[in-house]
Design a protein that fits this description.
heterodimer, A: 384 residues, mainly alpha, 2 strands, 1% strand, globular, disordered C terminus, B: 308 residues, two-stranded antiparallel sheet, 72% helix, 3% strand
């Protein structure tokens, strides 16, 4: 046990921060906030799953994916399909021309449940799909691209295009996916009303517990050999390759892992919010998820979760009060974070105790190449 | 496609082909600017669409000024407005490069994110200045109407104008790249930055000019865009993914590849859009490109220049 503990947390401060944060989410917030607000926090935390994936993928391995919303959406849609099928039993939908199929299918003159909807009548299959579908799709995409040594900016653009294709595809096939409105009006999970106050508390705790399990898992990966190989790939890809590691496989694996985490987040999102729509999977939400991670700290698991909470909280508060200013603020914050604090909030917090008064160091990183990123992008070369 | 006669099909293909040419022109101009910047600095400018919108708004602003103060100038303002769109966007581009891009030069992924932040700010400022509604400049008479070739086949004049404009810009850019001293310095920097610096080329200055030029061309794209559609704060972002794909699938920084892939993407989209309802044509086109890129990531015309 102490060994595992030391693998997970390098310093006592780290462990304390982790415990304190868990305490805040599990005890303080549920006591302090009304259930409506707590549900919002739970919704923000589902983005934390994506952010943790991005810490591994982008912060540690140097792969920027602008399509994480796709995997969030895949997990979410799997969950939503199950819930929708449960919500549209023949009795409730008796007024439809074809009872027993989801309402949006009926509106689009579809008379039979499409074949790929059938398996989602079963909860075990749905849970299996939430884990496997995003991971497999990500692995195929990642394997195809990384094997051909595509990385850096190219990968970002291609994943962004995939996000556009996915959201347009859902949007355009209203009869099969619910179209722009998405899959709405989800009520029960195996007969359990997910909209009741009680259920919202339970789902919130489920979300927090899962999130911290995932966070510990991510920390484990970071602090073991795989984590060091990831950083090595980020900083000096060719040397890792020459040392005999299968770089493409490791990258594809970590991409698939991050996608799986996003899928879990998506499923929990649907459970807590009660709908799924293409507006949560497209280009803009996908980039926003990168923003959460960047603001919180692309190298830190805890920082990424914090980033999700802070940015989303800011978004809700500001965009209600000053909708015009919000985009300026968000754009400005993003530029500032990327230019001046590439390690985000977590990077700032780590600085404080060690460098008393040495704020100069903070500004010095601005011009020099920081240790944090950046893989020299190797544009696709045709050396072979 | 069974319900169309071959005569009709032919007309459909020609008509959609011509409307595809307008899209081609916009994508080409967007892609040229992006490719220039990408080839030069390995940087993708996510705010490129907003530069395009700025060009379009510049034309709108000119049209507004002309209508209010000098109505007699109406038929001619458009040509001046194109030039002004170029200048305004290039100036903003140079400023952005100076303030932002040059500091992030070693971190291309971060440039992508920072320019996205910029695009948010620009979009919101268009919304504050020009309003959220889409605007259209008053086009001069000579751009309106269409040329009737035969029954059931009309070719819009504005489309032809946009096509002509993009051809002129492309030729000018190629001449500039291969026949001017600056073009020589630019190509030298792309091939070997350190050596170029060693022989006395101010690579920082070349970067700034290349970025400004790329943004300026986006401005011209915006000006061209006003003749075929109305401009809103998010007009630019609608074309940005297509423009990225044009650059990527054309091959790194290859002007010829840019031309070919812009043509292919635009034509495929506009012809498929006729036969498939809604966004399906666009989805199909994008899907084919992405799959093609997974199989052949170097694009149509890969550059033969070695990295660094």
């Amino acid at each position: 046990m102490p060994l595992l503990f030391r693998t997970l947390f390098k310093t006592r401060g780290e462990a304390l921060a982790f415990g304190g944060f868990l305490l805040l989410l599990l005890v303080v917030l549920p006591l302090a906030l009304p259930v409506f607000r707590l549900n919002l926090v739970g919704k923000y935390l589902t983005f934390g799953f994506v952010a943790i994936g991005l810490v591994l993928l982008w912060g540690r391995c140097g792969i920027l994916s602008l399509g994480q919303g796709v995997f969030f959406g895949l997990g979410g849609y799997c969950m939503a399909m199950f819930l929708k099928l449960e919500a549209s039993d023949p009795v409730t939908t008796a007024i439809q021309s074809t009872p027993g199929i989801p309402d949006f299918m009926d509106w689009n003159q579809i008379t039979k449940l499409p074949m790929y909807w059938e398996p989602f009548k079963s909860l075990p299959f749905t849970i299996f799909a939430i884990f496997v579908v995003p991971a497999v799709i990500a692995f195929i995409i990642g394997w195809a691209l990384f094997r051909r040594r595509v990385g850096g900016v190219y990968f970002a653009i291609i994943t962004q295009s995939i996000a556009l294709i996915f959201s347009l595809g859902i949007d355009g096939n209203q009869g099969y996916t619910g179209g722009r409105n998405g899959i709405t009006d989800l009520r029960t999970l195996c007969g359990w009303d997910i909209r009741s106050e009680n259920a919202q508390y339970i789902l919130y705790f489920l979300c927090v517990v899962l999130l911290f399990t995932v966070a510990l898992g991510a920390k484990y990966i970071i602090n073991t050999r795989l984590g060091r190989v990831l950083v090595a790939i980020r900083d000096r890809e060719d040397r890792v390759r020459f040392s005999g590691y299968d770089v493409a496989m490791i990258r594809a694996f970590i991409f698939a892992f991050a996608a799986m985490l996003s899928g879990i987040g998506g499923a929990l999102f649907v459970l807590q919010v009660g709908f799924m729509s293409p507006s949560i999977v497209g280009i803009i939400p996908s980039i926003e998820m990168v923003i959460f991670t960047a603001v919180g700290g692309r190298l830190s698991v805890l920082g990424a979760i914090l980033g999700c909470l802070i940015v989303n909280f800011g978004k809700t508060t500001f965009s209600e009060a000053y909708p015009d200013l919000w985009l300026y603020l968000m754009g400005g914050t993003f530029i500032a974070v990327v230019m001046f604090f590439p390690n985000g909030l977590a990077g700032l917090l780590e600085k404080i105790p060690t460098s008393k008064g040495k704020y100069a160091a903070l500004f010095a990183r601005f011009k020099k190449t920081t240790p944090v990123v950046t893989t020299k992008t190797t544009p696709i070369s045709d050396e072979n | 496609m069974g319900e169309y006669t071959s005569e009709e099909l032919q007309s459909i293909f020609i008509m959609q082909g011509f409307s595809g040419l307008s899209l081609f022109s916009v994508l080409l101009l967007m892609g040229l600017g992006l490719a220039l910047i990408f080839g030069q600095m390995g940087v993708i400018n996510m705010a490129h669409g907003e530069f395009m919108a700025l060009g379009a708004y510049t034309v709108y602003f000119c049209s507004h000024l002309t209508e209010t103060y000098a109505p007699t100038f109406g038929p001619y303002y458009f040509v001046a407005a194109i030039g002004l769109a170029f200048v305004v966007c290039a100036a903003l581009g140079a400023l952005v490069e100076w303030l932002m891009i040059r500091h992030l030069y070693h971190r291309p992924l971060d440039t992508l994110l920072a320019t996205w932040g910029l695009s948010l700010i620009l979009q919101q400022s268009y919304r504050s200045i020009f309003g959220a509604r889409e605007v259209t400049p008053t086009l001069p008479e000579w751009l309106m109407g269409s040329y009737n070739v035969k029954e059931g086949l009309d070719i819009p004049i504005n489309g032809m104008f946009v096509l002509g404009l993009s051809i002129v810009v492309t030729i000018a850019l190629i001449t500039f790249m291969y026949r001017s001293a600056f073009g020589l310095r630019l190509r030298a920097t792309v091939q070997n930055r350190k050596m170029s610096a060693a022989v006395g080329i101010n690579t920082g200055k070349v970067d700034r000019l290349a970025f400004a030029l790329g943004c300026g061309i986006a401005g011209i794209a915006g000006a061209a865009f006003t003749t075929i559609g109305s401009t809103g704060p998010d007009s630019g972002s609608r074309y940005i993914v297509d423009a990225f794909l044009v650059v990527v699938s054309g091959g790194t920084a290859s002007l010829l590849g840019c031309l070919a892939s812009a043509f292919g993407i635009a034509q495929a989209q506009s012809i498929l859009e006729f036969f498939l309802e809604g966004t399906k044509g666009k989805v199909a086109t994008l899907l084919v490109i992405v799959i093609a890129l997974m199989i052949r990531p170097q694009g149509l015309f890969p550059s033969k220049v070695r990295g660094n």
